[in-house]
Amino acid sequence: MSPARRPDGTPRRSTIARQTPIEPTLHTERNAISPNVAAMKRRDFDPHAFLATIGEGRKSVLFRRKQGIFAQGDAADAVFYIQTGKVKLTVVSKTGKEATIGILGEGQFFGEGSLAGQPLRMGSATALTDCATLRIDKKAMMAALHREHEFSDLFVAYLLARNIRYEEDLVDQLFNSSEKRLARILLLLAHFGKEGIPETVIPKISQELLAEMIGTTRSRVSFFMNRFRKLGFIHYNGGLQVHSSLLNVVLHD
Question: Exposed/middle/buried for 21, CB within 10 Å: 0-12, 13-18, 19+?
Fold first, then answer.
């Protein structure tokens, strides 16, 4: 078939419609957004700001240093979110032996066992420093998790990370020496491997508490701390400063 011609006799050019590339989208209940935008939205999500807007069932609670937040055996009816300060989690055996299972800081949750149907607290929580917390009733927390997907994703990721940490602690207790366990806990307290400076100052923490965390005696902790200091792995200067070289103790067989 001959091409169509213009009135002046010249042939017309055939026109081919340009196809616009379709970018993949991530569908949500509210709208469809690109994956990059969705990822950015998750990164920009501020749990502190969100929790401050929950309303009923949430209240700010201040705790002084060494003040108990809840005790083992108390009713598990709320979740706590740390705004500022540090909290120590402990558990006591039937024979009265106490073990420290974690030290939590700003931006972390605790008491989440209540959400899984835990009727009583399995351990105790104590303010290690002056703390500002949000106490969120179980009902209000469940509603917030169902209502805000970004918050739900963040909370699940936090619980998974905590569970992995507990598994690592168990392996550490079973297979590593007390010296390695001490080195590891110091690096964890200094947030080694996370964003920030590789040589970090840890706020004042007692050797008794370190002994509870790694399952040994205070005298053994004192011995290893002096050894780490002599080797240049740590030093004291208005606080305990941990150097990245301490990682050699953890990696050494």
Answer: exposed
